[in-house]
Design a protein that fits this description.
This protein is mainly alpha-helical and about 575 residues long. The chain is built from 28 helices and seven strands. Among the domains are: about 140 residues, no CATH class; about 35 residues; about 80 residues. The protein is about 60% helix and about 5% strand. The longest helix has 23 residues. The protein starts with about 25 loop residues before the first helix and ends in a 6-residue tail after the last helix.
Amino acid sequence: MEQTLTAKPPRAAPETGGKAPEDPEVSSIKRLLSLLEKSFKTSRTYGPTSETCQRFVKQLYDQLTAHLGQYQTLIFVVRRFQLQSRGEVVYQKPEARENLAFKLFADGIRELTLREGLSPEELQFFVETLGGDYDSPTSDDDIATRLWQKNLPSISFVTAEDIIKFSELDALKPDEEPESLDGLLTIYNEIRGAYAEGEGGGGASSAESKYKPGLKTDLSGYEVSQEETRALQEELRAESARERFAYVWDMLVAILASEGTGSVSSMGLVQLFGKILESLLEKGNWKLCHMVLEQLQEVERRPDLPEEQRTNLASLRNGLGKPEHFKAIQKTLTSPLGRTEGLLPFLLKFTPAAVPPLITLLGELQNPKHSALICEALVTLAKDSPEPLVRKLKDPRSVFVRNLLSVIAKIGNPRGAESLGHFARHPDTALRMEAVRVYGTLCHSGNGSPLAGFINDAEPSVRLAALKLLARGTYQVPYRVWEPIVQNPGFLNRPSSEIQAIFQSMSQTTGNECVPFWEELISQRFWFNRRKQEAGTLAAEALGRVGTPEAHAALEVGKKRGSRAVRKACAAALSRRRGNQGP
């Protein structure tokens, strides 16, 4: 059975009626562990000699020296995913990855003690030991072995093997129990030494008389709880599910990181990486392709990596997007069993130079799910330069163009709206409606002339959608754009509601330029033409909305010269302009 020992019990907090304040020593320990974890991670990632790691180690040493100067010792009990001190959990993480406690636990350490007098060199060695060191001849040893070989006077530890020995000390009295496993190990060594002397003929020693002989020698291990067993099983399942390629790749990356500048083997490794990537592309294994690129980027960020290797790895990544790469992607996506797992993250590793080939690939796909995935990649890669997407909008394939419009709308770059006006002549009604919607999404103000092209659309819903956008009053459209529409002989045959919407859009986007046209309309006498009379009254309302002195003068003319209905509308518009609510 594993004997569970703890350090000093936590100090009792004063009774204040509220939540007891945290022990200052425990708070200091938690801050120290936070710095130790940062030093541990930066040592693993950037190497122990990096500037970032050295800065964290310096901060850790300063705070650790102050802590040990006040409390003399710092004792940790190591659990699988947590560290305990003074009976409280001071460090805990639910996963094994980058877990300081799990690193110590996996290497057999069950208790760690730091004492006053710890030197900067000892702390540096300890951090390097935790973070690993590729160049060290003892890199294959565990933490316990390396610390034992160094024999640091201010750092001691107890291993799992020592715990088995502790179970033999069942004769200790409660008032004789030590404060830590390290203290118990000292007592154990005294007892073993005393019995060794007795067996050698020296008689019973003081240690033998102090501790009764209750040693048990048939114990071969320590108990593992059910929770720990389940955690081990889960880790084994996760490890077994990992692809064999990942193990080989990790070894290749480690070899590359340890090579010197310009070595033949490192150049060969870079070429091998390229062949591996090509092979994974051919097989359509996007998940592993993404993992390869991720790890290559991590290697590039190493501060101790020679510049030549960094350049070679960067050229390998930037080489993505060759025609053969997209042929492999197309072959996989068009096959019946084509898989897409991990494809989007992999495509996002491409540079913007891959946008044109991706657009071509999008046009060849038939599966809507595959097309949606390529569209998502284009949204990110073409966000700063949507021109290749705009150039393809004249393609005759409606589904392909609709996908391009959805990408342009998601990008939200106003430059993407420059060529949407030509959709006014497109035979697909749904595409014309989508073009109006995308234009309103990309351009909330500015030139509205492209929208005016949809006002003659054969589909009423398309015409009204364009008029609603123009009626917002945030676009500018010159009268020369409106003139072919309103001077058309069939213009007055449109529904009155549509004529009203057109006049309202003209007053909002053109303003005073339209006054001569409306003045001419309200000045004529339409005794027997109901359509023209309705158009005249709507023109009077539009002049009232314009509200300029020229519009006011035109209403005065219409009030005297127009037909009865028009004169009445002009008077009403003038009355509203003066602030009166006339009939």
